[in-house]
Amino acid sequence: MILVLFGVSLMIFGIMMLFPPGMRVAIFVQTDKIKPGQIDALIARYGLDDPAPVQYVRWIKSVFQGDFGYSITAQAPVIEGFKRFFPITLELVLFATPLIILVGIRLGTLGAVHKDKPIDHGTRVFAIIGYSLPTFWLGLLLLMIFYGYFGIFPPGYLSIKGKDILFSPEFKRYTRLITIDAILNWRWYLFWDALYHLILPTINLVMLQSALILRLTRSSMLESLGQDYIRTALAKGADRRTVNKHARRNALLPVVTIAGIIFASLLAGMVITETIFNRQGIGLWMARAAILLDVPAIMFNVLFLGVVFAIANLIVDILYAYIDPRIHLA
Amino acid sequence: MQTLVKSEELYTNFYTFEGVVKALNGVSVVVNQGETYGLVGESGCGKSVTVRSMMRIVQEPGKIVDGKILLFFKQEDRSKGINIIERSEAFMQSIRGNDISMIFQEASTSLNPVFTIGEQVGESFLFHRLSQMLKETVGELDEEIQRNRFFLVQGWKLLQRALFRAEFKNLEAYQDKVQSLDNRLSELEEKTDNRSITEKILLQRRRERLRKKKTWIEILKRIPFLRRYYRRLKKTIRKHVVELLKQLGVPSAENMPDRYPHELSGGMQQRIVIAIALACHPYLLIADEPTSNLDVTIQAQIMELIKTLKKTTIASVLFITHDFGLVAEICDRATVMYAGDVCETADVKTIFRHPLHPYTKGLLQSVPKAEQVERLSTIPGIVPNLIDPPSGCRFHPRCPYAMDICPEEKPPTIEHSPEHYVACYLYVDKER
Amino acid sequence: MADLREQTQHPRYKEFLFSAKRFLKNPLTIIGLVIILGFAVVAIMAPMLAPPENPEQPFKIPHTGWRSEPSPPSKVHPLGTLPQQYDILYGIIWGTRSAFRIGFLVVLANMLIGIILGAIAGYFGGVIDEIIMRITDMFYAIPYLVMAMALVIAIGRGLKSIIIVLTILGWPTYTRILRSEILVVREKDFIQAARASGASHLRIIFQHVLTNTIYSVLIVASMNIGITVLYAAALSFLGLGADTGYADWGQMVSTCRNYIVGPADNRLAYWYVVFTPGFVLALFVLGWNLLGDAARDVFDPKLRRR
After folding, report:
1. Who among C149, C260, C293 is closest to A143 (CB)?
2. In contact, A226 and A219? CB cutoff 8 Å
3. How far apart are CA B72 and CA B94, in angstroms?
4. A259-281 burial, b if ≥16 CB within 10 A, otherwise e?
5. What ipTM was assigned to the predicted interfaces of this complex?
6. What gap in Å lies between CA B125 and CA B281, rounded to an integer?
């Protein structure tokens, strides 16, 4: 895994080097107020003309020190921006992931158990459509319908009143997750407000992402149902429910481990969702940074997500070894 | 000789993309109590399909299209058989694993890799001996409550006992209903007048839909955190499992229920499979080529086990194989099958010494014998494609004694000598 | 007599018929086929359906006027216009060509790279295999969209960049698939037999190995065309694609970001701007996904025999 991380960092560094030195200055300075004449001096000072390996080492060192430079999009050092934006993204992802998995598994098993019957075709159609829809399109459509036509589920992550509560001095940030903090502060209005703003993006995500789990569960279940131990269960006099239980536990092995991957890819895919629903998370940050060519922000996000991905993969591998009785950790 | 199970003129087809595979062409098999019955034949001749049809677990896309399957042990009067062809799936589930059990070829894949041995063997008890288990648990809890008077512990046990009692009552009510329905259906068995048939159909439907009443206890059993109390029952079941394993000569039976199938050797796995089959003391054990994938030493072990079990636990076995050696070793009677036809049925000694059917003769001739010096003899030709099988007697294209009448019509089964049946026109004339 | 005819048919032909029949049995497949064929027809006939203003630059959508507010569907603009009065219908028709172009180019390139690398890794094994697999793992560890964004930003915006970037990021899937298929096939007896009868490595790969393993790759490729176009559209939506006024579906949706919700009295005023290009995009992707799904159902050997 270390090797993978190393490779990823190399790739990111490589992308960084594609930018002209003038833009890379931002990684090293802490403000956004630079006069044009100062750029050359700064380039020399931070050694942005030095050979690549030297710069790489320097960059890695600064990464480990937690210094990622200044983000013009966030109007703050990158780290601060991250602290500000990440909880909002995290909240949505934490909220949506279990739902995606549950919906996907439920529909997938239904489809497998009633293979070739209407409900099977129904769920498969649902899956294929969900899979094919462009993220932004469905989101925009949902907004148009619910917010545009019905006037409910507005974009954003909190209403104005909610934001007032959130940023008021008495409000203590325990976890930085708005819903949980709201409960801990005993501010129910804030809780419902946050939840209210979570619903539409969650629907969007569930419709789009559950397709993958649905397909995986379905094919896994089908394979499981064709195995010999199902034959044994039948010969034992098992009823339909028990047979499904036998099949399900085998079938869910690969599915459950995908949960980690789903989590990670949701984090990455937030760019579009947050843009559409106007949630101030790292996705929207990244989208703005892309347009404004805010190099430090972009680099940081890519690095962060890369690390998250690598960790997710690792956890998935470990989890798989843990829950399958046939595999013993080497 | 008390008959246990009988199939009459069973026709089973498989509806595949390439065509309809007529797997069974009027198969009639009779298994009596106390005997080891062998079903012999080449691969693909329909031995497995026959027994699966008899237990009605034919796999998709197969369907039983005609014939009768009679069980003789469900009635007070053991000579009356009930036809289970049309019976509900719920009824069949109560028979499978309980009255008739089946073990399969590959033990390693027959066991579910993600459940422990204890869970899988225990399932047999859970399905078919639930009321007995519940009663035992309640009894044990009664005792424990008397002995230990410490408040907290007692409270928990009282709760468990109450829950199990409730489940027991619910189960008894259900079983009573089932029993009365089944009795009525058996009474109506032979009546063929319109009124009876209508009643039969209605009762069948009711039987199918009969479920244990969805009382709160059933729901409680399933809720993830609340169903902890059920562990008590599982403990009782585990005791029975360990006892069963000990009886079967499984070493370290105390620890076995916690193991997983992949931790065991092939021979041990097969023993576990046998344990699952015998847990409820079935009348008949069907063994579908149980030793075909094991090496010879393990094969010998399993055969010994089956022989021992025959004397102690289970009196009647239906043994499927393509190995005549095994037939000679363990079977009392045997039936030879070819391409979905039953060729010959007799006790084993007679089959070996006086085979009547040309196919049987051919098979026995092709088995290499110790003193043999000449070339091995074979039966010319190949096994037919069952989508378009030969007409009449399916063996006629390869039969050295084929006559004109053979392709015309399937030969009837004649009792050539007492308890020796053969389906061949060679012996039909002699009858007339 | 039917027997005789059946027996004289070459087995490969029979298999093909079997596959074709199964393929067409599924109604969803037919829908997918119809959709894709429909798009193909539109793409081919684009010059006739929507004559460009300037034949040299057919992808520039003509616009009548400079008003930034989109116009609703009318006789002049049957599907309405985008902000700055770009005709939607024209954009959609020529956008079909863009979509096919992006999809085919990227997927073909991915397939080539992936197959070559996968074949080398799988067949020769050892150190080469290790290296290639580590590189593939690295690619799997990066978040696709975000990385694509970064790369496109780095090398400059535009459709060409998107194509290049997606090509760079997309081949690992094919490598993995091909490699695992090869690992399975490599040990099969008929390969040993070929080696024993003296066939050279190259010949073995082409004749035996690839013909058996190509199916899964094709299945994945057909589904990936849709996904690739989706990603390209997403990148365009974020502003990293072509310039305004270029006939590309994603680009068209991107220009409308400010016009999702209309004025307070008529919130759905600009529905056509969001709905139409996205719908066409969804339909295109749906068609490819249906085809890929159906292909998988047909060609997956585990699910083949009824």
Report:
1. C260
2. no
3. 15
4. bbbbbbbbbbbbbbbbbbbebbb
5. 0.82
6. 11
Let me know: does B127 contact A237? Beta carbons within 8 Å: yes
Say yes or no for a CB contact (<8 Å) between A271 and C145: yes
CB–CB of C134 and A3 under 8 A? yes
Tokens of B6: 């009988």
C-alpha distance from A184 to closest chain B C-alpha (Å)? 26
**Predicted TM-score of the model (pTM):** 0.80
- The amino acid that residue C191 corresponds to is I
Q: What is the rounded distance in angstroms from the CA atom of residue A228 to the CA atom of residue A238?
A: 14
Residue B195 tokens, joined: 């009124």
Q: Name chain B's partners: 3 or more CB pairs within 8 A.
A: A, C
- Residues with Cβ within 8 Å of residue C40, at least 6 apart in sequence: C100
Contact B262 A326 (CB under 8 A): yes
Q: Phi-psi region for residue A104, left (φ > 0), alpha (ψ -120 to 50) or beta?
A: alpha
| Tens-binned pLDDT, residue by residue, of chain B (432 aa) | 688 888 888 999 998 877 888 889 888 999 988 889 999 988 888 888 999 999 988 888 888 898 888 888 766 666 677 788 878 888 888 889 888 999 988 888 899 988 999 999 999 998 888 888 888 888 888 888 887 777 777 777 888 888 888 888 888 888 888 888 887 877 777 677 777 778 877 877 777 777 666 667 777 777 777 778 888 888 899 999 999 998 888 888 888 898 888 888 888 888 899 899 988 888 899 999 887 777 888 888 888 888 888 888 777 899 998 888 888 888 999 999 998 889 899 999 998 888 888 888 888 888 777 777 777 778 888 888 888 888 888 888 888 888 888 888 888 888 888 888 888 888 876 554
Query: Nearest residue of B to residue C18 by CA position?
Result: B17
List the single residue in B59, B115, B124 with the smallest CB-CB distance to A236. B124
Tokens encoding A294: 């805010």
Cross-chain Cβ contact C285/A313 below 8 Å: no
CB contact under 8 A, C278 and A137: yes
